[in-house]
Design goal:
Elements lengths: L2 H9 L3 H7 L1 E4 L13 H6 L12 E3 L4 H14 L7 E4 L12 H5 L4 H16 L5 E2 L23 H16 L12 E7 L18 H17 L4 E4 L3 E2 L2 E2 L4 H11 L5 E3 L7 H4 L6 H10 L5 E2 L3 H11 L5 H17 L19 H15 L1 E5 L11 E4 L24 H8 L5 E4 L15 H7 L7 H13 L3 E7 L18 H11 L5 E6 L7 H4 L4 E4 L7 H10 L65 E8 L10 E9 L5 E11 L10 E10 L3 E9 L6 E2 L5 E2 L3 E8 L7 E7 L3
Parallel strand pairs: 1-2, 1-10, 2-3, 3-4, 4-5, 5-6, 6-9, 12-13, 12-14, 14-15, 15-16
Antiparallel strand pairs: 7-8, 11-16, 17-18, 18-21, 19-20, 19-24, 22-23, 24-25
Helix pairs in contact: 1-13, 2-12, 2-13, 6-7, 6-14, 7-8, 11-12, 14-20, 15-20, 17-18
This protein binds beta-D-glucopyranose (BGC).
Length: 743
């Protein structure tokens, strides 16, 4: 449709029909045939009886193609203007083929592969009739207590930015105006700074200086907007005491004006209504006023817009122009999706291509690259023809997809046992569960019928489980322990204060360690756990995160050496919960710890623990042995229009080919506000053949040296910068200084 036609369509709508376009409901508001509408869900959210469901603009989280087809067909038959419904859902890291969870994906530092995985997710979902996905989630997070760490890109602004751009481009296509076939419209979330929830408690308030907001948190959302993301989702939290969903400064000034976002702003689930619980709106009507004033377009799953906007407009509290602007954005999105031409996009083609095998290959590659080898005293890769006892509740568990794999099928998931059987000979393998994965499910907070489906609490005898595992372990040469957190212990509302692995699993590990056999740990989790007390018990430790459909094979390939580990952490691992937040880009203090005496008093330190994380950002081991040699710069000065080239030489001293993720950090030595000790500005993943050397060239531009001041203004100041290059945030053996002189 041309814009002129869209405007005509808009002008032909009554006020209530316009408002309907801003209302998003779930599929259960309509019965199968839509001859009768369901009243239960409407009553539940308090939707006024006079609300006409056939004005509704969009539907969330209906996954089945046939249901979508039926809903659309019946809707179009019954609605006056025949504006197609728009279907949205959470396709966060896969639809049929499930990829590793996002925090794991970013540990690959392979943004092309991440883009490819997003494109596959889009394609698979497209053929199930999905049109919009609530992805990418790019909330920067420094606090592993927060359960949503699993769906975030981690602690670093550069990684968040790269991830954001890759996912948007994978889902939508590059710089897409129209959303083509096999693509979805993307929705970046949760705007903004949701990952900085105080105390790591989900939905909690967020406080931060403007410089931290602009320098650290905003860039990843901005990257999505720059990549032409079609939607932005508001966050549940307050930012500096104002709820994001009703925050005019955030949504109008920053998002619409500064970032130049022209697309649809949708709320998070029921977030407009929550303005009342925040103590920011006095009533649902007040909440509607605040949200539309803040240019929020779609109300997800509440009756607030549906019940109150019309009266507010009649009474001139809100203007019809404000309503029209929001409705036009929604119509434009439907138009960009091609819905007016084909309301059944993705659904009509009978012969849906199933390239699933190819998709699973990509999932395997991404899983292998996402796994992080945290420790290896030389035991890995495991020798063949040795007896391996596979032990632990994740040894043969397919429930390793993470909380957002809403369409994920555990029966299509390769468990570690299956993967190891493929890679090692079956006859060399035994398996025993050893301990329950989770014992107390009450605090997970799901109603018992949901929990019953998702958390199996089988009748078990703990002593018998342990005995069987110890028996197998005694007979083996190696013990591989697969353990971790249940998938429902992270994800939305999965905040925790104790990040240690459950007692039953820790006991299992302690008892196995007493057998004094080489022991390898494989941890499945949605967050960095506190593993300080366990690490010494293992000869090697692999962090598997939730590795997706192909996870078991990926881990087995790493253990056997078929694949050389290359993942690097995108979040620091705390030594204990008291250190949180612990992250690499520390702000410098007036009393830094002394490098020659970390125990001297009156410095910025703990008296009972190191300042440093257990494993720093950027860390991850390989079976190769990489050495950093030389660094040089194309100029001593940064110039306005020239790229600064930094060249480094890295060798592989081992007999195995491997991938190294080379990381470039900068430090602004003196500035008008105190700047972090190190900031990641570039990275390159390179493959280095055995006993050879490679040169890596980084190209930095002037913007890499600017920053936002405490008013949110971007500044570039005369001064000196240190450039560091290395293998993680703490190990940067190469460095040099350059300067910038403002003209
Ligand atoms: C989550 C969002 C999600 C939405 C829709 C909310 O609870 O915070 O991330 O997109 O539900 O399912």
């Amino acid at each position: 449709m041309e814009r002129k036609e869209l405007l005509e369509l808009l002008n032909g709508l009554s006020t209530s029909e316009k408002i309907g376009q801003l209302v998003q409901l779930s599929g259960d508001f309509f019965d199968e045939s839509m001859d009768v509408t369901e009243t239960g869900p409407s009553e539940k959210i308090g939707l006024a009886e006079e609300y006409n469901l056939y004005n509704t603009g969009s539907i969330l989280n209906v996954l089945q193609a046939d249901k979508i087809y039926q809903l659309q067909k019946n809707y179009l038959e019954k609605s006056r203007h025949k504006i197609p419904l728009m279907f949205m859902s959470d396709i966060i890291y896969g639809f049929n083929t499930i990829f590793p969870i996002p925090i794991a994906q970013t540990c690959s530092w392979d943004f092309e592969l991440i883009e490819q995985s997003a494109a596959i997710s889009a394609e698979e979902a497209y053929y199930a009739g999905q049109q919009v996905t609530f992805s990418p989630m790019v909330d920067l997070v420094k606090d592993p207590r927060w359960g949503r760490v699993m769906e975030s890109p981690g602690e670093d602004p550069y990684i968040g930015t790269m991830f954001s751009k890759s996912v948007v481009e994978g889902l939508q296509g590059k710089q897409a105006n129209k959303i083509e076939e096999k693509k979805l419209a993307a929705c970046v979330k949760h705007y903004a700074a949701y990952g900085a929830a105080e105390s790591g408690r989900d939905y909690n308030g967020v406080d931060m200086s403007l410089s931290k907001f602009y320098n650290q948190y905003l860039p990843a959302y901005k990257a999505a907007v720059d990549a032409k993301v079609k939607l932005v989702m508001t966050a549940f939290n307050t930012l500096n005491d104002v709820p994001c969903t009703g925050n005019e400064w955030l949504n109008k000034q920053v998002l619409r004006e500064e970032l130049d976002f022209e697309g649809v702003l949708i709320t998070d689930y029921a977030a407009i209504e929550e303005l009342i619980a925040h103590g920011y709106a006095s009533s649902p009507s007040d909440a509607a006023r605040i949200a539309l004033d803040a240019e929020v377009d779609i109300d997800m799953k509440t009756a607030v817009y549906a019940n109150h906007l019309e009266k507010l407009i009649e009474e001139n509290v809100l203007s019809i122009e404000q309503l029209d602007q929001a409705v036009l954005r929604v119509l434009e999105l439907k138009n960009d999706l091609g819905l007016f031409e084909n309301p059944y996009r993705g659904l009509v083609d009978e012969s849906v291509p199933t390239a699933e095998d190819d998709h699973r290959e990509v999932a395997l590659e991404l899983a292998e690259k996402s796994l992080v080898l945290l420790k290896n005293n030389g035991i890995l890769p495991l020798k063949k023809d040795k007896k391996i006892a596979l032990v632990g509740p994740y040894g043969d568990n397919a429930n390793t997809l993470g909380m957002w794999a809403i369409n994920g099928d555990p029966s299509r998931t390769i468990t570690l046992k299956t993967g190891m059987e493929q890679v090692f000979s079956e006859s060399y393998l035994s398996f025993a569960e050893g301990a329950p994965l989770i014992e107390n499910i009450e605090r997970l907070g799901f109603s018992s019928n949901i929990t019953a489906g998702k958390v199996k609490l089988p009748e078990y005898d703990k002593g018998a489980l342990l005995e069987a595992a110890l028996k197998n372990a005694r007979e083996a040469d190696y013990i591989v322990v697969a353990f971790g957190e249940h998938v429902l212990e992270s994800g939305e509302a999965g905040s925790k204060t104790d990040l240690r692995i459950s007692e039953a699993q820790s006991d299992l590990i302690t008892q196995l360690a007493e057998l004094n056999k080489p022991m390898i740990g494989v941890i499945y989790s949605g967050r960095p756990n506190n593993i300080t007390h366990l690490i010494d018990k293992f000869d090697a430790l692999v962090y598997a995160w939730y590795p997706g459909s192909m996870g078991g094979l990926a881990v087995a390939n790493i253990l056997s050496g078929r694949s050389n580990p290359s993942g690097k952490l995108t979040m620091s691992f705390p030594r204990n919960e008291g250190q949180i937040p612990v992250y690499y880009y520390n702000y410098r203090t007036g009393r830094p710890i002394k490098s020659d005496n970390e125990n001297s008093r009156f410095t910025s330190r703990y008296i009972d623990e190191s300042n440093y994380p257990l494993f720093p950002f950027g860390y991850g081991l390989s079976y190769s042995d990489f050495r950093y040699h030389t660094i040089s710069a194309s100029s001593k000065e940064i110039k306005e229009k020239e790229k600064l080239e930094i060249r480094v030489k890295i060798s592989n001293e081992s007999n195995v080919q491997g991938d190294e993720v080379v990381q470039l950090y900068i430090q602004d030595k003196v500035a008008s506000i105190s700047r972090p000790s190190k900031e990641l500005k570039a990275s390159k993943r390179i493959t280095i053949a055995p006993h050879s050397t490679e040169e890596v060239i980084f190209k930095l531009c002037i913007d890499d040296f600017s920053f936002f001041d405490n008013k949110g203004t971007s500044v570039l100041e005369t001064g000196e910068f240190i450039i560091f290059v290395g293998s993680n945030a703490e190990e940067t053996p190469l460095s040099l200084e350059i300067s910038y002189i403002a003209s």
